[in-house]
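User:
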Amino acid sequence: MEELSASDAGAPLAVRLRPANTHELLGQQHLLQSGSPLLRLIQGQEKHITSVLLYGPPGSGKTTLAKMIAHSDSRVFVELSAVNSGVSQVREVLAQAQERLAQEQRETVLFIDEVHRFSKAQQDALLPGVENRWVTLVAATTENPSFSIISPLLSRSIVLTLRAIPDADIETLINRAITDVRGLNNEITISPQALDSLVRLAAGDARRALTYLEAAAGASSGEITPEVLNRAVDRAIQNYDRDGDNHYDVASAFIKSIRGSDVDASLHYLARMLESGEDPRFIARRVMISASEDVGIADPGALGLAVAAAQAVAMVGMPEARIILAEAVTYLACAPKSNAAYLAIEAAIADVRSSKVGPIPPHLRDSHSGALRDSQVSSARESSSYIYPHDLAAGVAGQQYLPDVLLGTEYYHPTTHGYEARVKTALEQIRKMLRGK
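Assistant: Predicted structure:
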């Protein structure tokens, strides 16, 4: 726990180059539009926001935004780390903030990094300070707040989603760091090939880009080359064509090759990513998405295999992770394909967003109001007009499930590929039974 002061000249490059204002901030312009809550808060115009949750990947600017909020309008900035702060530290900060507000009329911005690591008790301890506005809470998390933040705190917050910094902005940041007097002050240069590699290695993380740049600058004799960068970050660097083999193009070609069932092309792009130093966990995430989006119900086992591969990659690491990824990629590329489930949820979401919902049919509603049930089965049986499917020989009850406004709607249209062909045949019979035909 500490009140932060201005950084000194000996601070890391990432600290020295921290944006001092919104004009220097890169990659988050969608949050800084004129009149946006964040901009109003930074400018000291917004007095009614008591809590802000900054949700985004590492190095996207969460701490920077928190400090901008604090430094506007002479607020005091206090930082807690969810890793090593307990309930007692939270209460101590809130008590100090309450006293400061009463005696000095100065507001306190409490920044909590990695707030998803706070237990329920720790998050509960924040509520008095947030509700009474003793502090303006700015909490940062890399995990979805809907799952990692308690409901009372979430309901008193606005959630702002930060994005990974685009490659073009990472390049701008690196060039700024080389020339800026706060940075390297033109004491080194960087070759185009090394710049491309550094942008790719940063993977949208501004802090990582500056950390790698500082390490490479210390290892260079005036110019950062791919060889210097390779020694500095201890990773294999491939010389990629600036206009062609960038991070997103290779990832796109990889996914499209799997979708197109070209196993050889899929393995080629996998090898290119691995040899360029791509994070194998990023590749594993793309494989899981491909399994659900492109293979789908045509081979329901594909997602399980992809998830198992991702877990194995995280546990084993490189270089053996390449074998695990190759197995998963080969399986997906050779598997039958269907995006029917993907199209189905997109269509259902479109209806919900357009308010095409309607009341839930009475026989599907909970037969008890409010209280917790010991048995959902008994609750279902007790509903007066609900037909319990398990009581029927076929296991399918001909009754209405969709709201009236959506009667007859079919979101899922199975293909005849792989296992989904069997699903298609069965579903045709099920839909007839549901409609009493």
